[in-house]
Amino acid sequence: MAGDPQSAKRAYRELPRLFGTFPIYALIDDFIQSSFFLSNFDRQNRNNRTTDVRSPTRAFFVFPDSFACPDLQPNVVACVAYPAAKSFSFVFSENYVMTTVKSGPSLAEVLANTQIPALPTSAMKLLELSQDPSKGPADYAKPIEADVGLMGQVLRFVNSSYFGFSREISSVQQALTLVGVRTIKNFALWSAVFSIVPNPKIGPFDLRGLWQDSLRRALFARAVGRELMLVNAEELFAAALLQDMAIPFLLKALPAEYEHLMNRRVSEKLRLSCLEREVFGWDHAQAAAQLCRTWHLPEDFAVLVERHPSLNELLGGSNPQVAAACVAIAALLPACKDKEWAEEVDFIKGFARIDNKQQINLIELLGRVDESMEDFAPIMNLPIPEKPLLAYLASQAS
């Protein structure tokens, strides 16, 4: 009977006897001591599903599919999925009674069944060189010049209006010297990933739109990093640029599931990562980090990508991870096709925590990112967004 604490306690006492020790049992104690059936939690948090599953407020009664609890099972109505732990999707009824655990495909299973292409040889060589601090522009120029297509892209990149050189740059080594090894390496990495990412035609997904969003977020992450005088601002650019690179692979692997999630993201204005964790127990950030590791990218870079949905966690505690938070805050920017900025409040609050000394003028920063986007997007054969970032702030203010 829903709302009856005695039923819950009887079911709880049966769990160890029936199923042995289970990691989440410790959390159930906290749950029983605090509130029953999540009624208060659900009213306050139905539209905010980012709380970590390890929080006591998310400690539900967990039963395998094969378990039928006579006290609780009859009360199941209109089940709703909530965030998952590992490969489980927790499901409870509108009467706030936890009844089942649904198992879904683990990330390892999905990636094992997905054909992940290797990065081009030139990109792999550049990444290898980046691990040796003694290497300079002459060393980096060799693999770029050996790849005619990449060499043409690099020269077009450095001769664009974004850099504004007064004379044409005609050699790769000269480009590396003037623009910087990190900038060229990251551009080459993006070009390599861009060339191998699939383009599944599923629901509202648009690959060019994904790269357009990623570029704007990358420009923002780098701009914040530079304002804060972080030494790895170029890595922040690359991490933000590639943070969503796993989405096309996941759409191809799980087309029906992701079409549903993409439609929900639009209609419910929720982050894709929250919806993924709700359904699968993992998200595209973890998948992208695994791609980084498969391609032998630096572990620090993989972590930047992996933690981009975790802004609050990055800024919590006594040692905030500001560099990673620059990538995470960029992920809260609106998609270029969004009519409204659904996460503007979270963005403003998060940005204030990153810029806790109030040394950055956010309006000017967004304006510079809009200007950079106009210069940079054509280089990557991407459209300039119809609605600049400053326009979102103006529309919200009005």
Topology:
Layout: H1 5-19, H2 25-34, H3 39-45, E1 80-85, E2 88-92, E3 98-103, H4 107-112, H5 121-130, H6 137-145, H7 148-158, H8 172-179, H9 181-196, H10 207-227, H11 233-242, H12 247-253, H13 255-268, H14 272-279, H15 284-294, H16 299-306, H17 311-315, H18 322-330, H19 344-354, H20 362-379, H21 389-397
Antiparallel strand pairs: 1-2, 2-3
What does it look like?
By secondary structure, this protein is mainly alpha-helical. The protein folds into 2 domains: 5-104, no CATH class; 197-397, Hypothetical protein af1432 (Orthogonal Bundle). Helices cover 56% and strands 4% of the residues. It has helices at 5-19, 25-34, 39-45, 107-112, 121-130, 137-145, 148-158, 172-179, 181-196, 207-227, 233-242, 247-253, 255-268, 272-279, 284-294, 299-306, 311-315, 322-330, 344-354, 362-379, 389-397, and strands at residues 80-85, 88-92, 98-103. Strands 1-2-3 form a 3-stranded antiparallel β-sheet. A hairpin with a 5-residue loop joins strand 2 and strand 3 (98-103). The chain starts with a helix and ends with a helix.
The gist of it:
With 398 residues, the protein is mostly helical.
